[in-house]
Amino acid sequence: MIRPRFLRPPGARPEKEFLARCLQCGQCAQVCIFDCIRMRTGFNPFVSGTPEIDPRKAACHLCMRCSAICPSNALEDVPIEESRMGYAKLDTKQCYTWKGFIICRSCFERCPLKGTAMILERGMYPAITDVCVGCGVCEHVCPERAIVTIPTRFAG
Amino acid sequence: MKKPTIKTWRRALQIGVALAFILIPILNHFRISYFTGNFLSFYAAGLPLADPLAVLQITLKNYYLSVDLFIGAGIALGLAMILGTAFCSWICPFGLLSELTHEIVQRILPRRYKGLTTQINGFRLKIIIFFLGLTGFLIFSTTPVLNQLSLPAWYSRIFQFYFEQKHVSFAIVMIFIILLVELAAHKRLWCLYICPQAVLLVFAKLINPARLKVGFEDEKCLCNKGRDPCLQACSLSLDPKQLSHILETECNNCGDCIVACKKMGKALQFQFKSSK
Q: Nearest C-alpha of chain A: how many angstroms from B4?
């Protein structure tokens, strides 16, 4: 298996800058009310203790408590629309609504940026726009695992 | 009832801090977050505290210092300027574990450390590790790697891992191995020779010659030549009677020698005077 795909908390700077700033104090994980932020375990001195989010286990709801507390500004306190964690990709071949089984809308109802990042095409079919910040809620709630969140940590 | 000695107060504070860092992740787990963080960075009801070395690393790397970290590291360094490296002996939970290990060895094998007087300057090795880690981080690495050498941070991280994400960290074994090595090889090995976190605190305390230190009054000393309970009491095996420059760098103001001297004439006292 390749290295597990994980997201940084909302507001995280690009990966290199983030790692240079992160103090590994774990306060973001301690204030997270959704328990989605986990400190990276193990002894790898380059990443151990830094926060990560696995949206399959628990997704970020963009409450931004973590970026507010971060003492070293590794997580910037930005508006949620600019929190650049990644982007979500919807596989229309797997989605219940797109396949025509049932009207599901789980992802649309839970999306923190409902209406801008997640829209309903033709009033019915969920679709993800460029506004998506990749919080991973849709991936977490999707019953068919049709959505994958791709981190943009390494971009920029 | 006996009046509590300095050592009793010190142990109480050490154990209190060690327990507090077990309690804080539990409270955080139940959404009570007045206190958050570990020994690298900590908020005590809004008051920021930070490890000066961790702050120095990220400041040099990013040319940026946030207000909270400036205040946090400033408090730590300011306290070191006034009280010396009291953090190591009064607060650090690894210091507590290391001292307890040392005391157990002394109970079992009382003759083990006889004649072992350290006049070796362990501070030099610490400085080497400090600068190697710092330059290594600035040139090769993206992460402040010296943070991983902070054993109090690992101590608090074990409980962060356990109570917040139900992960039993292997760091418990690591701390045990270090304690076993100390037990077998050299007492207080990590604190004397390796811990790079203490370097900045020592620099800060050397700035201020009028900081808190152990003073020795020759005329009050009742000990015969060759008998020195103060030296026996010192867990770093420094000799409080000869306060040379080296010893002042190493001394953590724990006060064990003062307790030992209490029955022997009270020649040793905490004082703020400059020794010159």
A: 35
Interchain contact B154–A (C-beta under 8 A): no
Q: Which B residues in the span 7-66 are in contact with A, Cβ-Cβ below 8 Å? A: 24-25, 28, 31, 33, 36-38, 40-43, 48, 50-51, 54-55, 58, 61-62, 64, 66
Segment B36-54 shows an average pLDDT of 88
Please tell me the distance from the alpha carbon of residue B53 to that of residue B50, in angstroms, as a whole number. 9
So where are chain A's domains? Answer: 15-78, 81-151
- Euclidean distance between CA atoms B148 and A101, whole angstroms: 52
Could you give the CA distance from residue B81 to residue B206 in angstroms, rounded to a whole number?
A: 7
pLDDT in tens, B16-29: 999 999 999 899 88
Q: What is the pLDDT of residues A39-58, one digit of tens each?
A: 888 788 788 888 988 888 88
Class at the top of the CATH hierarchy for domain A81-151: alpha beta
DSSP one-letter code for A127: E
Least CB–CB distance from B41: residue in A27, A31, A38: A27
Contact B58, B51 (CB under 8 A): no
Residue type for B151, please?
L
Q: Is A120 helix (H, G, I), strand (E, B) or coil?
A: strand
- What's the rounded Cα separation, in Å, for the pair A133 and B174? 39
Class of domain A15-78: alpha beta
Determine the straight-line distance between the first and last CA of chain A, rounded to whole angstroms: 26
Torsion over CA: B138, B140, B144, B149 (sign): negative
Does ipTM come in above 0.90?
no
Question: Closest Cα partner for A118 from A150, A90, A82, A80?
Answer: A90
What are the residues whose beta carbons fall under 8 Å from the beta carbon of B83, sequence distance 6 or more?
B211, B212, B253
Question: Of B1, B5, B52, B7, whose CA–CA distance to B256 is shortest?
Answer: B7
